[in-house]
């Protein structure tokens, strides 16, 4: 993309083909009449790819996904709290596989943390190959604009991924950086996995119409960030890896695999998007308008999952805002409320995860997972993480992502934060809606809206300011 042909930020939405909200919040398969020919072809290709992975794993059948919207369905989602906890004990994040208890921060960093990362790599998110290619960043456009009342400098940046090893696949990571035009020095930046354009709608990326109805009036989250004197960046996940199984032989996964199918331990889209966010941070570290020690990562829904994965794996990010991430994100796998493991193993979502994750929706159960989401949050320690969700009702509420399951995971990560000298939430008792637990490095707040982070932006920014001002 040449500077003379640069697109406005609102054009980023065009770069983000993604599954509809219907596929995520109401996972019962859509009938052919509801889909376009292209969507049908994509779904069939995804089914074929998933079947090949099942064959590799020698899995004959998977348990059925649940229906989020129809309580009379053969396999309805569970919204009954009394039936939500069939699991046994959660894995202990401070217990080595040898059975030895971790008692010092040195033991955490040198022994236990690596064990947890290995389990997530192998069984949940997949391994990033050791031969990932280099990325060359190019600023294709720089201009002055207005975002609300703020004068801003807008840079469109493209990360050209070296594809000399397999020229048949090209990957150009799309990033837009917006900073205050009159900043006196480098500023903190919040990076969003985003399909929304500059000055565009306030709904979260990837969440669809059902998420926008409860958005508050007033300044957009971007304008709230700018009012703090900070900047923001919009990162296009689809420019890194397509959000469907049909695209696994394209994007960064297809490039590294030279167009071949994944192996069971191969990385899925969540890990690929997180890799792309790390490469974006590589660029931000070179941009003199950015304080690279104060960069946050944010996302909602599937991108909330990837934001948490990003924070867990890349210790350079200072803070994370995890919005309505649900199963595969902050929600405990071992809780039966809203979306279970079986739905993430379904055709519309399996590509987010490693192939091995399919085992836990078939011959194995959720309780067989060697790790759970509290340990993913623990990998973020000692840095600050804000877990966000809406009300715990069925769609269009946010019950599908199981806010309480995310809270319990955050609480269970507390021992690691305390071991590293930081504060946890201070309680294991689920708080009322709109009562934030904000005093520690792990924080949680359930707002009164639906599948969106919009109402929690002011709370997150106040939380982030505490760390950005202190420099911690």
Topology:
Elements: H1 21-25, H2 37-56, H3 105-125, E1 135-147, E2 150-161, E3 172-180, E4 187-193, H4 209-212, H5 221-227, E5 231-235, H6 251-256, H7 269-284, E6 290-300, H8 302-313, E7 319-323, H9 341-344, H10 373-378, E8 384-389, H11 403-412, H12 414-419, E9 442-446, H13 457-470
Describe this structure in words.
It is a single chain. By secondary structure, the protein is of the alpha/beta class. The protein has one domain (3-20, 123-470): 3-Layer(aba) Sandwich (Rossmann fold), CATH 3.40.50.1820. It contains 13 helices and nine strands. It has a nine-stranded mixed beta sheet, sandwiched between helices. Helix 7 packs across helix 8 (302-313). The longest helix is centred in the N-terminal third of the chain and has 21 residues, at 105-125. The two termini are 38 Å apart. Residues 1-32 and 197-214 have low confidence and may be disordered.
Named CATH topology: Rossmann fold
Q: How many individual helices? A: 13
Oligomer: single chain
Gyration radius over CA: 21 Å
